[in-house]
Amino acid sequence: MSEKRKTIPSLVKDPKLIEKRREQIIEAAVHLFINKGFHKTTTREIARASGFSIGTLYEYIESKEDVLYLVCDAIHAEMETRLREAINFNGTGLKILKLAIRSFFRVMDQMSDRVLLIYQESKSLPKETLRYVLGREEEIAQIFVEILQKGIADGSLRLDEKHVKLMADNIMVLGEMWVFRRWALHKHYTLEEYTEKQITLLLREISVSD
Amino acid sequence: MSEKRKTIPSLVKDPKLIEKRREQIIEAAVHLFINKGFHKTTTREIARASGFSIGTLYEYIESKEDVLYLVCDAIHAEMETRLREAINFNGTGLKILKLAIRSFFRVMDQMSDRVLLIYQESKSLPKETLRYVLGREEEIAQIFVEILQKGIADGSLRLDEKHVKLMADNIMVLGEMWVFRRWALHKHYTLEEYTEKQITLLLREISVSD
Amino acid sequence: MSEKRKTIPSLVKDPKLIEKRREQIIEAAVHLFINKGFHKTTTREIARASGFSIGTLYEYIESKEDVLYLVCDAIHAEMETRLREAINFNGTGLKILKLAIRSFFRVMDQMSDRVLLIYQESKSLPKETLRYVLGREEEIAQIFVEILQKGIADGSLRLDEKHVKLMADNIMVLGEMWVFRRWALHKHYTLEEYTEKQITLLLREISVSD
Amino acid sequence: MSEKRKTIPSLVKDPKLIEKRREQIIEAAVHLFINKGFHKTTTREIARASGFSIGTLYEYIESKEDVLYLVCDAIHAEMETRLREAINFNGTGLKILKLAIRSFFRVMDQMSDRVLLIYQESKSLPKETLRYVLGREEEIAQIFVEILQKGIADGSLRLDEKHVKLMADNIMVLGEMWVFRRWALHKHYTLEEYTEKQITLLLREISVSD
DNA sequence: GATGAATGAGAGTTCATTCAT
DNA sequence: GATGAATGAACTCTCATTCAT
């Protein structure tokens, strides 16, 4: 179902070192891309901010686009990790769902710079790679799909199976909205207010009892 | 409230001619930006596609970013025009709201390339300009705010005044979602199905009767 | 029979100007390539020696290899022109042949730097282009083929038709030898001595009378 | 007369090992240079194809140019060895000469890739080194000089002493021509036909009887 | 003696912008 | 008002060479 993860060739042999250096690259590039955008960040800046020379940078990647891929993938990985860590899968689907939404919105809030980065820059990835990165997004949506299905199964949620995916997408989008429209929303709401309000809206329709 | 529209200086005196040429520029650039992205489109390409020389292009703009601004502004203008044309402000707030949502979703669908363009490229605008462009987005949200307020006033909608802006934003976001997630959504829904489903979700909470 | 001449695209429209600038490029590049070799000459050096900026250079070529092609082609053109100008096609084949050999050897001598350049650098051309350039060499050999055939026809040369091409190649190669082995040959011979000696050798076999 | 062979310093002490490793380097580099050319072959590729690391490569050479020198020298050595092995120095000068020419042309044919390599890449050698490599060429020409002189001495060849060197050069050049113009010559001749034809041409003038 | 990660000068190429015509 | 040739800073990427381990 999901595209296979891209493996970026490296001229360096030691896998431990590759991982370490790529973490440095990601750490450096995330901040640069957030502040200047992908196109306005130069490979030299990435190298310098990573703590090594331009030559060394290219020992660990093949092209600037590879850095963007590494960054996007790392962000998604962190999003998913944080989300999964925050969710406790005990209790009714409804209960889990509420927890998951709160967690997701919180993760969006904490990672808003990086979420924005993905949305604004991932289009610069090569087509093939872009598909994979978009696929990671779907994996996160899938978490909500599963929770919703659990809720349907245990009777705590009433929702046509047909609309499960849409509901999952709605949750995702309303979470991302907190990021995209923060300049407007932060004026009126705290994260908590926003979260509770959206939960009310989203669940009114589908929760059997709350 | 809203930022003042930016005036791009031109070396040319005749305002009629300026408008005509800028329309040519916008027409050409929209397609180029959609297909290649802002950064990968060259000013030479814009000039050629506009039907004149690079020198002439720079008689009507001061920088490449100006073209992006013209394009974003034109897209917003078209969005707003289409939306306003489609809405009939007669009837209860609830009725108008449904019509407006349907219209907005349809406009999003029809203009999806251009909507995407704004979301992906507007970040390349100079800060000041970006603020103005984001402001245009608010103007559209404002349409929904007004409709919601009318509905509250005439009793067809039950919604805390405090949440009006959020509801308007939700509508916008769910409309934009049809664009951003089209690769996922189009598999499961037609625009009409999607629209009705989301209307149900959005209004369940707030409509007094439907 | 011969490959079609390559047309290098230019960003500049005026054909007169293209020709003029390319002449400048060729003039500059020939000397640089002779002195430093193709690989050790930078595009910046070519631009500077041509009298304009690197940006301007790239208005008239698409790649550094294009410069090499221009240079090789110009050298061949000059070789052929000089040779054809020097040959008088009146008289018996034998007489014309002797004149042609002397002319060819003289041209080789005068252009020895450039002949060397072609032999040492043309391999860096893209395959397709290389084929064309090698073809030009054949066109020159063809001059000798025609003279030989004229001599056979008028009875002044006795040579199996089958060996005409080989004889033409031999003439070419012995002319080029004056270039490739000049470090050895110049110690022992003047150009004139060398020429007469080789003519004797080459014609002993085939001339009916001299 | 001939330049002294260049001695490449090595960080390694053991002469046996140096020789072994350099043979590996030559073997690897010859093929790489033939296929990609000297400039497009990287030292990393040479090391890998040699079977060891880049660091080890530089234990046995001081620069990439050293590899080119090793390669050119090895090719010349092989040429000379093969030629000397094939020649039987018994008989009249004329007889030996014919044998030598046939052998030389055959060696040229068998080693054509490598002969071409020397002609196209040796110019990239440092001036000093180049002189030595070109000198090796002379040593081979010297073989023919000696044979010619033997033929003059024993009366089987009639040739002005003054022209001996030229005749030797002619032989060399016509042999190399089989390599340089193979794309043209192979269409018309087998190696044997070519050889016999050229022998006829070359000897007509000088052989007392054949 | 062998390794391979690190280096950085320097390469070819692009393209937004200018300005003389 | 229109043109398009000229500019050169800035870009991504390469690769011969070094040296600590």
Automatic annotation (TrEMBL), chains A, B, C, D:
Keyword DNA-binding: yes
DNA-binding region of this protein: 42-61
SUPFAM superfamilies per UniProt: Homeodomain-like, Tetracyclin repressor-like, C-terminal domain
Entry GO MF terms: DNA binding
One Pfam family from the record: TetR_N
Entry keywords, A to Z: DNA-binding
Protein name, UniProt field: TetR family transcriptional regulator
Location of the HTH tetR-type domain: 19-79
